[in-house]
């Protein structure tokens, strides 16, 4: 009996470890699938369909100036990692790994980069946002890059985009949510004029 009780914690830890491992493998598979799907979609559709904005282009732009870990006093996003704000995206899976680092090693230095697993979660976050909110269907790369960045870094970014579109004669509800009709409208308007006007109204 004593031996069985001694083994119980070990069996529980093993089951938990295995469960966490399976969950992680599923997450990695999902990330890889989304990343490959986006990349292949960009490559295959170019010759026969209208040009679509590239996620890889937009992501590289964001990576180039976002940096790593930050927790700056009076910053509206508060604690952030690679542009992902804990205040606005508190359920992001990467926070678990960052919190584990803080628990075992203390507060990270400014602009610190964590392990490869955390990087996978960063890519998943941006790919999911790109696909789910329809940025992948935008035709102009410059528009896609700017609006994707605006969406991420302003709590009312999409609302301002909607207001600007309404000045062009559209009638979008100011609900701060991207939708397919907005994407269609953005593909029709003069991209240079629109970008100039949205830059003047931008609030982060």
Keywords:
204 residues; mainly alpha; 3 strands; elongated
* Rg, Å, rounded: 21 Å
Strand order of the largest sheet: 1-2-3
Reading the helices and strands in chain order gives: HHEEEHHHHHH
Overall average residue pLDDT: 82
Q: Largest sheet at a glance? A: 3 strands, antiparallel
End-to-end Cα distance, whole Å, is: 63 Å
Helix content: 55-70%
Please tell me what the overall shape is: elongated
Helical/strand content category: mainly alpha
Number of strands: 3
Low-confidence sequence ranges: 9-19
Q: Into which percentage range does the β-strand content fall?
A: under 5%
User: How large is the count of helical segments?
Assistant: 8
Please summarize what this structure is.
This protein is mostly helical.
Can you walk me through this structure?
- This protein has 204 residues and is mostly helical.
- Helices cover 63% and strands 4% of the residues.
- It contains 8 helices and 3 strands, in the order ααβββαααααα.
- The protein has helices spanning 2-45, 55-66, 94-105, 116-132, 141-153, 157-166, 180-188, 191-201; strands spanning 69-71, 79-81, 84-85.
- A 3-stranded antiparallel beta sheet has the order 1-2-3, with no helix packed on it.
- Strand 1 and strand 2 form a beta hairpin.
- The protein is elongated.
- The termini are far apart.
- The model is unreliable at 9-19 (pLDDT under 50).
């Amino acid at each position: 009996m004593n031996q069985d009780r001694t083994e119980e914690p070990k069996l529980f830890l093993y089951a938990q470890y295995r469960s966490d491992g399976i969950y992680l493998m599923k997450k990695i598979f999902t990330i890889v699938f989304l990343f490959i799907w986006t990349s292949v979609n960009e490559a295959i559709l170019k010759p026969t369909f209208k040009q679509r904005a590239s996620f890889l282009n937009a992501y590289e732009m964001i990576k180039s100036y976002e940096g790593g870990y930050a927790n700056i006093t009076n910053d509206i996003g508060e604690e952030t990692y690679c542009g992902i704000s804990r205040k606005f995206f508190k359920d992001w899976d990467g926070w678990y790994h960052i919190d584990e680092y803080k628990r075992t090693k203390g507060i990270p230095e400014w602009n610190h980069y964590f392990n490869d697993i955390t990087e996978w979660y960063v890519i998943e976050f941006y790919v999911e946002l790109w696909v789910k909110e329809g940025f992948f269907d935008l035709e102009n790369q410059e528009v896609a890059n700017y609006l994707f960045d605006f969406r991420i870094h302003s709590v009312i970014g999409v609302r301002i985009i909607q207001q600007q579109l309404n000045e062009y004669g559209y009638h979008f509800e100011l609900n701060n949510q991207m939708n397919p009709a907005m994407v269609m409208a953005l593909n029709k308007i003069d991209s240079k004029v629109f970008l100039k006007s949205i830059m003047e109204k931008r609030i982060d």
